[in-house]
Structures are given as C-alpha cells and as structure tokens.
Amino acid sequence: MQDLDALKPFSIPGQLAFRTGPGGLPYADIANAGGTASICLQGAHLTNFQPRAQRAPVVWLSQAARFAPGKSIRGGVPVCWPWFGAHPTEPGFPAHGFARTVPWAVVDSGAAQGVTQLALRLEPSAATRAQWPHATPVELRISVSDTLGMALITRNEAGVALPLSEALHTYFHVGDIGEVVLQGLDGCAYLDKVENFARKQHSGALRFAGETDRVYVNTVADCLIDDARLGRRIRVRKQGSACTVVWTPWAEKAAAMGDYTAEGWRQMLCVESANAADNALVLQPGESHTLEVSYGAEAL
Ligand SMILES: O=P(O)(O)OC[C@H]1O[C@@H](O)[C@H](O)[C@@H](O)[C@@H]1O
C-alpha cells in the first residue's frame, strides 16, 4: 500500500488530502463546494458521500463497520470484481471477488469546474494472481461534486476472451427502509436469491417488508429511491451496466452477519449497478469495458 509520502503529490490543497484512518488504512478525503467524500485505498472503497445541500449522507456506512487489512467494510461502495456473488467454480474464493479487500494505488487526481477527481488502480499481487492470473488492469475513477460519479474500467490485455462479472455494490442511506419506494424496475425479470434464485417477473414500484435479495436482469434503466422520511429522492444513473441488484438483509440476517448495530440495517438499501448472472461480461482480447454510475439527491 502507498504510504502518505508517496500520496502527497496527488493531494490538492483545500480539496483532496490523505490520512491514515481506522484500521491503520490509508484514506483520501475530498471536500469541495458541492460535497464531501472519503475513500479507503484498500478496496478503492468509498465510505462516505454527502452533498453540501443534504443533511444526511447519500451513502450509508454501518456504525458497527470494522476496518482492518484484508477485511471488507460494511457499507459505502464495495467494488465487486472480477466476479459478483459466489465464484462460479471455486467455492473457497471470496464472495464478490477480491478487489474490495486488496490495496489499490492512487494513479491520478485533478480538479476542474467544481469537480474533484481521484483515480485508483488495483495492485495485483501473488495472492490476487492465485485467484485471477489474467492481465486485466482495472481502474476506479471517482468524481465528487454535488453528485458522485464512479467509473470502473477493465481492460483485457490477456490475449484470450475472459468471462467477468462485477458490481458497484452501493449502500444508500435512507430514513427508514419500511418507508422507501424504489422505482425503475417495473416490467423486469429477476432472480430471487431469497428463493434459491427462482426467476420471477416484477411489476410496479418496489416496497420493502422483509429480506429482499434480487438480481434484476436485462435492465439498463436508472433507479429512483424515494425516501419520504428524509424528504428526498436519490437518483441512481448508470451506463455500461445491464443488471441491477437490490438488497436489504432485514433484522435476522443483519444480526447473523455482524457489522450492523441492532436497527442499523433500517437506514440502508443496496441498489447495485452490475453485470452479473445473465448479464455477466465476456471481455474480448484488447477490449475495455466501463461500468459507470452517478448518484445525486433532490427534494421529493
Ligand atoms: O456480505 P457481503 O459479501 O458483502 O454481501 C452482501 C450481500 O450482497 C448482495 O449483493 C448479495 O446479493 C447478497 O446476497 C449478499 O448477502
């Protein structure tokens, strides 16, 4: 992992600074006129985003989150790569890939027109090569203003076609999950992970009254999280993503997972922009793929 001296050339006075934070891990803090954000360099894991005009963060972080080398953080935006969910053939490999728990290097930063940018690249190691021996440089480019932009860019330099799945597994902060209405998935087919991946059809808006874990396939639509309690709508825009994963653990599963306070799960909803299941990618030699999202909030 880069030390703070190596990171200094990327800092931008008044906008971007680096520090050692919880778990002894390096973090980047961004602040500008539009909003604030923090990114843990382990996993390129964004842990906070709040527009200045919002009284609550847009991205949720568990109050019981643990920060440690090699451990995924509960909340924020885990980067799931180069596979989403269980590995297709290796049950011993970590769920959602290794990208979220390994060091990423800062490779670029900049500021223009009220937007602060930071680019990170996954650092391959003997441990990652043991699970993914392919030459596929991957970068996460983050841009912060009153909206948050993220682009996950994978390039296949391996010389052979490669199957790959991925997601930006974003935990959004909501007032209360029981009052949230999610729009954008009307008419979509989904795999219901709560019922052993049964394939179902969805219609209308989505409301939550229990554990929900669904992979909506063949949808490139944006989603809206309407949050009556906080009086706001979060707009989830995406490009280069053909499925959307919706997840809330509810009480029992949250308690079993740890990393949650007793009622903490009520303040989160995962709406994940992904390429997985029916929409997993096959990257041809020399091909690049970009999964891009932007998140903003407005009054309801
Ligand atoms: O605990 P993890 O590995 O971060 O995963 C959290 C959840 O992530 C979601 O994307 C999955 O659909 C769920 O099945 C899973 O429980």
From TrEMBL:
Top-level taxon of the source organism: Bacteria
Cited SUPFAM superfamilies: Galactose mutarotase-like
Catalytic activity entry: alpha-D-glucose 6-phosphate = beta-D-glucose 6-phosphate
Keyword annotations of the record: Isomerase
Assigned GO CC terms: cytoplasm
Active site, renumbered: 169, 272
CDD domains in alphabetical order: D-hex-6-P-epi_like
Keyword Isomerase: yes
InterPro entries the UniProt entry points to: Aldose_1/G6P_1-epimerase, G6P_1-epimerase, Gal_mutarotase_sf_dom, GH-type_carb-bd
Signal peptide: none
Record-level Gene Ontology MF annotations: carbohydrate binding; glucose-6-phosphate 1-epimerase activity
Name of the top EC class for this enzyme: isomerase
Enzyme Commission no: 5.1.3.15
Example GO biological process: carbohydrate metabolic process
Assigned protein family: Belongs to the glucose-6-phosphate 1-epimerase family.
Name assigned to this protein: Putative glucose-6-phosphate 1-epimerase
